Known about the structure:
- With 391 residues, this protein is mostly helical.
- It has helices spanning 7-35, 38-48, 52-65, 70-82, 86-97, 104-121, 124-132, 140-153, 157-169, 176-192, 196-209, 214-226, 230-238, 240-243, 248-261, 265-278, 282-296, 298-311, 315-327, 334-351, 384-390, and strands at 354-355, 362-363.
- Among the domains are: 68-172, Alpha Horseshoe (Serine Threonine Protein Phosphatase 5, Tetratricopeptide repeat); 273-352; 353-391, no CATH class.
- A hairpin with a 6-residue loop joins strand 1 (354-355) and strand 2 (362-363).
- The N and C termini lie far apart (72 Å).
Amino acid sequence: MEFETWWLLGIPVFFGLGWIAARVDIKQLLSESRSLPGGYFKGLNFLLNEQPDKAIDAFIEIVKLDPETVELHFALGNLFRRRGETERAIRVHQNLLARPDLPQEQQVHAQYELGQDYLKAGLLDRAEETFDKLIDTQYGAQARRALLEIFQREKEWTRAIEAAHALQQSGAGGRQKEIAQFYCEMAQDELVHTHPDAALAVLEKALAADRKNVRATMLIGDAQLAKGDAEAALLTWRRVEQQSVPHVALVAQRLMDGYRAVGRPQEGANLLKAYLAEASSIDLLEVVFKAVLELDGVDAAKQLVSDELRRTPTLLGLDKLLEARLMDASPEVRPELALVKNLVHGHAQKLARYQCSRCGFKARQFYWQCPGCSNWETYPPRRTEELNVMN
């Protein structure tokens, strides 16, 4: 291929065209930025500096001057909602929906934002109605998630199960754990109303959804006990170990009470001691300590706690050891020992918390659904001090 001299002339031409195009883009950008109101940049600056109150005031002024600024309406509504001013957020998004010239895509967006406003305000009926209209739009997955949240808040477990199945079918991820928990909630209601057979029927569906659901197994044992079959309940509760060894602590008191009911308390105490040897747990130690104290005496209880404290040194374990020592302490030592016990007990109680692995919410009692973030099965069945020692 021969080199043509005139090609050299094309190089400066290309550079010139590129320079002209860049100048045109810069001029257009400057022109567009000049056309934006000054309050827009002021509001943006307040947002970047985490001053939402001042940002809202700036954006309100722009909206008054130019009501056609749709995106600013969306920004303003979101800011109102984040601040908890749900009434104002609702008005902003309702005004948008009332505009006849609003494009279809933005109408759907406004509808979704309005649904979020209703949800934040606790207007669940309106939120449900709004999200129902969005099922067949580009916001379908978000709408289904919102509906699932609404049904959980309203404790409409049957509808929550349907919504979870719909989410799964839409490709939004598995919901088997949640579905099993919804069945457990239904079973819990049946047990409260003394309908053990109905509870058992529902719990079969829970285990069909999630074979590893510990709560369902525990509730099956409760239902069997309610029917008067303590032996069957004991066998069921013992299956928890096969599902999750740490969760045995949650069923330990049930097991001990069950073995007492059938006249075999020593067998129950030996079983729980075996569980404790396999997996250390403050809650399990509490149940075993009381059982050993009742069946084998103070010395055996002290030895149990001492051995456990050497294996897993925790303040909660020390509190239990001091409690055992106080039982047979001499009159001379008792006052000082009681003083130390009370001091340790006060600090130990602050550590006797369960903690959500998602949001960090701490609670004295174990929850299957976190009160803080509403997620299911996010509480490890161990106290926070135990987890810190293990880590």
